Amino acid sequence: IDTRSDVYSLGVLLYELLVGATPFDAEDLRRRGYEETCRVIRESDPPTPSKRLSTLGDALGGISKRRHVEPDTLRKLIRGDLDWIAMKALEKDRTRRYATANALAADIDRHLNDEQVQAHPPSLSYRFRKFARRNIAMLAAACVIGLALICGLGLAYIGFVQQRNLARELN
């Protein structure tokens, strides 16, 4: 038992805050008995929070109502970074879990600031999406400038071709 077991507990709390239910179905675990419950928690990976929302049925309506958001929107908000953060906190292999509660909190802060979270496997498209969300005005300006350059080059080429054809007709 070390700080990573505390991180696991914090991961369960985060999961409950996101989904409104524990990572494993409580009724199912109660029916299994103590030994089987321990085995399931040790060996089985829970579904991601966004997938768990899909299995809640009618309860999803109440959860989304309390959060003042539509069920589909709630799933979209949780899918991605929050799924990755919760699942890294609940990782069975403690060496792959967050080392400290501060590391978990830092990843949640990065998510809230639209920065790249440590729990997500780095990919070029993921990093670009995060960069684009933080720098939307700069990217929009760069696109406008790029479009203006392309239009300008196209018009210059058309003018060049017309001048060349006019020069041929005069010769």
Helix-strand sequence: HHHHHHHHHH
Low-pLDDT segments, ≥5 res: none
What is the first-to-last residue Cα distance? 91 Å
Oligomer: single chain
Task: Give the amount of beta strand, in percent.
Answer: under 5%
Specify the overall morphology. elongated
Structural class: mainly alpha
Q: What is Rg?
A: 26 Å
Major pleated sheet: none
User: Using DSSP, what is the number of strands?
Assistant: 0
Number of helices: 10
Helices and strands, with pairings:
Elements: H1 3-19, H2 26-32, H3 34-43, H4 49-54, H5 59-66, H6 71-78, H7 81-89, H8 101-112, H9 124-134, H10 136-170
Helix pairs in contact: 1-7, 7-8
Protein described:
The protein has helices at residues 3-19, 26-32, 34-43, 49-54, 59-66, 71-78, 81-89, 101-112, 124-134, 136-170. By secondary structure, it is an all-alpha fold. It contains ten helices and no strands.
How would you sum up this structure in a few lines?
The protein is an all-alpha fold and 171 residues long. The protein is built from ten helices and no strands.
Protein traits:
single chain, 171 residues, mainly alpha, 10 helices, elongated
